[in-house]
Specification:
Citrate Synthase, domain 1, three-stranded antiparallel β-sheet, 6 strands, binds s-citryldethia Coenzyme A
């Protein structure tokens, strides 16, 4: 079907093709807009702009749907592991038993980090934020592993190496920042257990695994694994479009994720809830401040560019909070404050009218606190979870025949032509 729209301007009409996706999303193809009409479009923040055709993740913001390669995130959270979900996102299908076993062995074989990288860590100031350390260290991997990323095999090897090392690098930043001995990955432990052991095992007190804690970490990472063209994924795709190596593109994604409006929100939510707790739990003030247009305060963990209903990940995260804290017999006052905030906001016209619902970051920090992760590492945890998604999106962009170097246009509103004025002729200030 020759689906198209017609653009009419000053008596001239232009036909623009319409692209229809497998879920009936429609896009106006403006690939030839400037060539055929001389016009460009303007869309700060890209709220109305599709960057690419993608087969990785589908979101329906009105219905609260999230699927990885067609599989609902609820089913993956219930039945899958983070390793298997990473394989699904990157390879486009679930692995066979043998493929998963080989992937697991590769992840363990490459989970060590070059010993010389330790000196990098030791030279960061102790108070350095773990996200700044992690994005720097991921970029530094190119110096230690300069192999080309030309062939499919070299790319897959680099991808597996990065997935294997990111949790070791994250745990190292935690241990070294506390002056503790670095704990090495163990070949007998699965992905999440290895991370927990590297974080919390000490020479005087071996880490004791609790099945529910390991499962909560797996589900946490599954829920964060991809989210179509969000800010940090766009950074990975844009930086990758210059054909830089994968490590540099991922490091750019980590830097974008760090912001409090994006992945840094999980840390900001806990800081907000802790502040409310310090003010004897008076959460209504936060609600009033969020509604006050004159106040720059935002209710962190609320609102979303795509979801105009409850973030499906937040529903699972909230349930996980209840189950995990009950199992660990933890009574976290911040969870009570979060639930009271949510209930009040959900019954407030301002939040309903602005489609402001809890997003993935609203309850995730409470799960991480229960696991024992320090607050300043919350966004690092998000980054480890999102890494398979960033990699899958980067690979898809590299294989996309339409993908070119990202170079948007602009509408210039500055001074029209003027001329250089010699100093002697300038007004004296
Ligand atoms: C993530 O894109 C993704 O998929 C991201 C993510 C992923 O998995 O990659 O889902 C992860 O980043 C989740 C979002 C985490 N960030 C926060 O929780 C920070 C608080 N939320 C907001 O700052 C905001 O809601 C954003 C950044 C999430 C979305 O911003 P938008 O889409 O640009 O919406 P907006 O800022 O234009 O807000 C629309 C209106 C505004 O009112 P006006 O200024 O137009 O009058 O709603 C208001 C806002 O003031 N609003 C809020 C609010 N969020 C939006 N008011 C109070 N509290 C909030 N949290």
């Amino acid at each position: 079907m020759d689906d198209h729209v017609t653009l009419t301007y000053q008596g001239k009409s232009y036909r623009l093709p319409v692209i229809v996706g497998t879920e009936n999303e429609r896009g106006i193809d403006i690939l030839r807009l400037r060539t055929d009409t001389g016009f460009i479009t303007l869309d700060p923040g890209f709220a109305n702009t599709g960057a690419c055709l993608s087969s990785i993740t589908y979101m329906d913001g009105e219905k609260g749907i999230l699927r990885y390669r067609g599989i609902p995130v609820e089913e993956l959270a219930e039945n899958s592991t983070f390793k298997e979900t990473a394989y699904l996102l990157i390879n486009g299908r679930l692995p066979s038993e043998d493929e998963l076993r080989r992937f697991s062995i590769m992840l363990n074989d490459h989970s060590l980090v070059h010993e010389d990288m330790k000196t990098f860590y030791q030279n960061f100031p102790r108070a350095s934020h773990p996200m700044g350390i992690l994005s720097s260290m991921v970029n530094a991997l190119r110096s230690f592993y300069p192999e080309l990323q030309a062939t499919e095999e070299e790319i897959n090897f680099t991808v597996t190496r990065l997935l294997a090392k990111v949790r070791t690098m994250a745990a190292m930043s935690y241990k070294i920042s506390r002056g503790h001995t670095v704990v090495y990955p163990r070949p007998d432990l699965a992905y999440s257990e290895n991370f927990l052991n590297m974080m919390f095992n000490t020479p005087v007190k071996p880490y004791e695994f609790v099945r529910e804690v390991v499962r909560a970490l797996e589900v946490f990472w599954i829920l964060h694994a991809d989210h179509e063209q969000n800010c940090s994924t766009t950074a990975v795709r844009v930086v990758g479009s210059g054909r830089v190596n994968l490590y540099a593109a991922i490091s750019a994604g980590m830097s974008a994720l760090w912001g409090p409006l994006h992945g840094g929100a999980n840390q900001a939510v806990i800081e907000m809830l802790s502040e409310i707790h310090r003010m004897d739990g008076d959460y209504r003030k936060a609600i009033e401040r969020a509604k006050d247009k004159a106040d720059p305060f935002r209710l962190m963990g609320f609102g979303h560019r795509v979801y105009k209903t409850y973030d499906p990940r937040a529903k699972i995260m909230k349930r996980m909070c209840d189950d995990l804290l009950k199992k660990l017999q933890i009574n976290d006052p911040l969870l009570d404050i979060a639930k009271a905030l949510e209930e009040t906001a959900m019954n407030d016209a301002f939040f309903r009218e602005n489609n402001l619902y809890p997003n993935v970051d609203f309850y995730s920090g409470i799960v991480l606190r229960a696991i024992g992760i320090p607050t300043n590492m919350f966004t690092v945890m998000f980054a480890i979870g999102r890494l398979p998604g960033w990699i899958a999106q980067w690979k898809e962009s590299m294989d996309d025949p339409q993908w070119r170097i990202s170079r948007p246009r602009q509408i210039y509103i500055g001074p029209t032509e003027t001329h250089y004025v010699p100093m002697a002729e300038r007004p004296r200030s």
